[in-house]
Amino acid sequence: MKFLASSSKSLLVIQTLAIIIFMIGLPFIQFSIGYLILSIIAFYCYSVIGISMMLHRYYSHKSFKISNTLKWFFTIFAILAGRGSPLGWVYIHRIHHATSDSERDPHSPHFNSFKFIGFNPKIEEKINYFIIKEFLTPVHIKIDQYYLGIILCFLLCLCLIDINLVFYIWALPVLIVSITQTCFNFFAHKYGYRNFETSDKSTNNIFLWPFILGDAWHNNHHANASKLSTKVKKFEFDPLVFLINLIADNK
Asked: In Å, what is the CA distance from 227 to each residue of 34, 93, 197, 230?
């Protein structure tokens, strides 16, 4: 049972591919404000909707419920974000919460050096599949196994539409997602302020807010991981809650 192997190994390939496309494409791509706006939209779709809303609050912590149709629609952004399959991402994140800032933490800055680009989480050889038991379904296992192939198919589709879109809708936003998530994993457990005396060293970091919005209030989140909103103080704005309240299934 090596369900995590494909997506974890694909992370380096995906980040390397994004860098290569960015470097090669930079001198040749067609620049326009329209393309740039598409890139910004794509970044927030991947970072906020894909990672923060779906991988983090929906899949990892089950903070809200949505219809099956919306679940799979928004999961597309989570997959294209280039941070691993839902199965793999949730496993790492739940281990992080269970072992936060200890030697067993997959990405604690207190036991791992800062990497500007790259994400190589420490995964114990004996994987505890009970942690992700609800993900051991044919669909999620296939997504994990063919994670890289799914992204390559998406890039092929973009090429057939407009080769500039490979740069603006995927390579550039995914590269920025990679950098911001690496910074998040490092700085949100090292620098900032704390509202709660949690057992770990999580912090609220206002400088991360423009990129990950409410997830920047990371100490608040670690104090109450299943809570939908990360807002505690008046200025700690968490706009993602408004979107979730619009689409949530309250039945």
From this structure: 37, 16, 17, 7
